[in-house]
Amino acid sequence: MSVSPASVSPAIGSAPTEADLLGFARRTAADAELIASLPLDPEGRTWVRLDGPGGSEAWLIGWPPGSGTGWHDHAESVGAFVAAAGVLKEKSLAARLPTDGWQTLELTEGVDRERRLAAGEGRAFGRHHVHEVLNESRTEHAISVHAYYPPLPRIRRYSRTGQVLRLEQVERPEDWQ
């Protein structure tokens, strides 16, 4: 199912910026009817694809209590996400990682960042942003809106033990659509 919330698009012929994606995510997260329409599953994340601005890829995602993404990046895409309901925690790395050609990296001290995003709060990020998103609530679902441009060419998934980050898997669009 594809849903097209009302939005202001970037100029015709131009790619949406991080600010455009964040603005879209904020407007969409404020659409109470759309947010309430997302089916929620008590055991797994649910999602609906949205029509994002300027050819971007967008998703409405439901997060059951205790769920998360694991460490990942969105490769060459810039993105944004906004919590529409509940509270999400984002853990991220304030370091630019090599884009290809590695399996294991030892992270330096001080690269970890953490933020909590309550309903209406969000953030934009650039290419190769490594993070994980979590709903740490034990009782409440969270819902969020995400947008990426260009549409996700791949997602790299990582495991982390202490300061060691290991590339585990590379997913392509056919793996999640």
Structure summarized in a few sentences:
With 177 residues, the chain is mainly beta.
Explain how this protein is built.
The protein is mainly β and 177 residues long. The protein has one domain: Sandwich (Jelly Rolls). The chain has helices at 18-29, 32-37, and strands spanning 2-3, 46-51, 57-63, 71-73, 78-85, 87-93, 104-106, 112-118, 122-125, 131-134, 142-149, 155-161, 164-171. It has a six-stranded mixed β-sheet, covered by helices on one side. A four-stranded antiparallel β-sheet has the order 4-12-13-7, with no helix packed on it. A hairpin with a 5-residue loop joins strand 2 (46-51) and strand 3 (57-63). It starts with a strand and ends in a 6-residue tail after the last strand. The model is unreliable at 4-8 (pLDDT under 50).
Tell me the structural class.
Answer: mainly beta
Query: Which blocks of ≥5 consecutive residues have pLDDT under 50?
Result: 4-8
| Oligomeric grouping of the chains | single chain
CATH superfamily: Jelly Rolls
Distance between the termini: 11 Å
How many domains, as an integer?
A: 1
| CATH hierarchy class name | Mainly Beta
Q: What would you call the shape?
A: globular
Order of adjacent strands in the largest pleated sheet = 1-2-3-11-5-9
Q: How many runs of DSSP E, i.e. beta strands?
A: 13
